Amino acid sequence: MGLDTPAVRSLEESGLEHRMIQTDVPSSPEESARLQGIDLGRLLRTIVVRRGGNDYVFVLVPGGRQIDWPKLRAVLGTRRLALPDKDEAKEATGYDRGAITPFGSATPWPVVADAAVASAGVVAIGAGARGANFHVDAAELLRVLDAQVADVTKPG
To answer: Model confidence at 140, in pLDDT bands (50, 70, 90)?
Structure first.
């Protein structure tokens, strides 16, 4: 039996074609990309961002990039955003920091994907456990997640 997380069950129910990759727990995004045999820019980090009281959004950020806060605030039409602490993030998503993914989240928060994701080809996104990722087609991923695509990052 393989990995069984809410993310695995959710992705399988979605019908999204994927390949599960499990590695040792990496110490950095660069190491994760290397262990998975992909370019850093194809490794997606899922960042949970608080818009207000009990109101969150997932932001898909390609490896080597970081959130551009003014751009994200403009896209979301808000003046204030915050990163929740690890306990609040776990409560909002059901996942520990480092394993957060939109798939199987405790609450299905909206997803914003950086514009670079749309043309990335095959990308890696978390499978709900450290060292576990799904490799999926980026365009299909965005469709299944009903993601809003916008320029929300800058080189990191």
So the answer is: very high
pLDDT band, residue 101 (cuts 50/70/90): very high
53 Cβ partners below 8 Å, 6+ apart?
Answer: none
pLDDT for the residue 156: 83
Q: Which long-range contacts (CB under 8 A, 24 or more apart) does 96-100 make?
A: 96/130, 98/130, 99/126, 99/128, 99/129, 99/130, 99/132, 100/46, 100/47, 100/48, 100/58, 100/126
Tokens matching residue 127: 């499978």
> Is residue 2 pLDDT above 80, yes or no?
no
The C-alpha atoms of residue 147 and residue 156 are separated, in whole angstroms, by 22
Domains of the chain, by residue range, sit at: 6-155
CATH of range 6-155; options 3.60.60.10, 3.30.420.40, 3.90.960.10, 3.50.50.60: 3.90.960.10
What's the mean pLDDT in 44-58? 96
Q: What is the largest CA-CA distance in the chain?
A: 46
- Phi, psi dihedral angles at 117 (to 5 degrees): -65, -40
Per-chain mean pLDDT for the chain:
95
Of 14, 3, 2, 12, the residue nearest 99 (C-alpha):
3
